[in-house]
Structure to design on (208 residues):
């Protein structure tokens, strides 16, 4: 059987509130007002330094990233939960023989912390973060994820155009989901192989 690769934030788990809160809280280390929540939402999915770059000078980016990681590692499961229907879907996919991997822009350590805190680590075969190699839309994190499960990939599932681009570059079929932070119009413009609006639609696609 093949492997199915998932993005984490906005695809498997609803982490918007915790990411936004930690990002905004971190600005206290430079004595600056944080950007509004809606502005932060548009940046989620990018590497942290890229998220901070529009709002702070380059010489304090490392301080902001360090504070975010310290804060978020402690509070990453305050309000974050798997999207409804995701845990049963993972169980069904596993039962059908698929290997399940995560490929995220988070570091591997942070991604594993999140899934462990949420109690879904055992539902996944491998959790791969972006550790010292190019981030999506480059395919590197997907290649590492597939190496981690030792199987060829079938689908890359994510909520951002960068997920679609990375999956395509890795040679996988791609599915965009609309319940994350990505706008549907942008997702359609990325030309995924499939676009789904509900977890039940995703189930039908992957298990049909």
């Amino acid at each position: 059987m093949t492997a199915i690769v998932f993005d984490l934030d906005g695809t498997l788990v609803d982490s918007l509130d915790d990411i936004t809160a930690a990002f905004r809280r971190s600005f206290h280390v430079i004595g600056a007002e944080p950007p509004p929540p809606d502005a932060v939402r548009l940046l989620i999915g990018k590497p942290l330094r890229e998220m901070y770059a529009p709002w702070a000078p380059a010489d304090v980016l490392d301080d902001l990233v360090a504070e975010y990681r310290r804060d978020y590692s402690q509070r990453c499961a305050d309000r974050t939960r798997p999207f409804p229907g995701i845990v049963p879907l993972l169980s069904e996919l596993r039962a059908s023989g698929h290997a399940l991997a995560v490929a995220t822009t988070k570091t591997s350590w942070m991604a594993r912390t999140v899934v462990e805190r949420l109690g879904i680590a055992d539902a996944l075969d491998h959790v791969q973060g972006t550790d010292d190699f190019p981030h999506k839309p480059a395919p590197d994190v997907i290649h590492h994820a597939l190496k981690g499960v030792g199987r060829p990939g079938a689908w890359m599932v994510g909520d951002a155009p960068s997920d679609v681009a990375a999956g395509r570059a890795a040679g996988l079929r791609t599915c965009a989901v609309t319940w994350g932070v990505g706008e549907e119009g942008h997702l359609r413009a990325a030309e995924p192989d499939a676009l789904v609006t509900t977890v039940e639609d995703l189930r039908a696609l992957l298990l049909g």
